[in-house]
Amino acid sequence: MSQAPAPDALLEIVENLAHYHREHEKFYAQAPLEQAIRLQHVSRGLKALAERWAQAEPATRPLPSPYAGAPDLNDERAIEALGVLFMEGGGEPAELGAVKTELRALAESHRTTGEWLSQAMDTGWAVAEKLLDYPDLADVLAERHRIITTNWQTATLSKVIGHTVDRALDILDRIDFSPAAIRTDLAGGRRDGTLLHAACDLLDHAADLAAISATLTHENDRRWRVFHGRVQRITASAGRPSD
Q: What's the number of domains the chain is made of?
């Protein structure tokens, strides 16, 4: 019995990546769907306010209690969905500020993830060229390269999602959400509701892109399974002693 051949260092790395990155992508096949649902939830709550402000008449005799809800400004759907309650003695509802903070964090996460993934796929594409030298991988080369190109797509989607949510926030920041300012707008051009609708349209678009990203990532799972299985068989064979 002869000594077993030395393991192929590149294939060992490739097998490691195929195993752990397949597991990693299982997370990213689900997380964007959860984010899409959350973005739609936020959008629905804000749209409720926009719809309310499209037809509400500003109150001329607000209740004197600072904790009283403002009937002309509030929408029960927005209160139930987001906790956004306009009170006579308050400024911007705290819950609305929390929603904007959440959206900023989501946007930053998407931009950062997209940049990292794009750079990682640049490296992965260069490394994948070396696999062309392995005859036993010939029929799974397309699988590996499709994984990379799909990840390039999701990297771009992630960056676009980040920029889209950021622009929705830019629009929200143009609105003064204090009761006095909203009532002034209701008595004038009613621009706030129009801006809210614009922000919501962008949040809805970001949600759609997140769902597409999750679908693309999920489609990679079969490719990972096929490619990883082949690499495992090759490395296992290389590690067995020959007669």
A: 1
Give Cα separations from 166 to 105, 169, 175, 193 (angstroms). Answer: 10, 5, 15, 19
**What pLDDT score does 239 carry?**
58
Q: What is the residue range of 228's domain?
A: 9-239
- 19: in domain: yes
In a domain, 57, yes or no: yes
How far apart CA 212 and CA 154 sit, in angstroms, is: 8
Residue 18 tokens, joined? 């195929």
What is the CB neighbour count within 10 angstroms for residue 181? 14
Radius of gyration for the chain, computed over Cα atoms and rounded to the nearest angstrom? 26
Q: Rounded to whole angstroms, how far apart are CA atoms 22 and 223?
A: 9
Residue 243: is its pLDDT beyond 60? no
* Residue 161, domain member (yes or no): yes
Average pLDDT over residues 38-57: 97
Structural contact between residues 47 and 167, judged by C-beta atoms closer than 8 angstroms: no
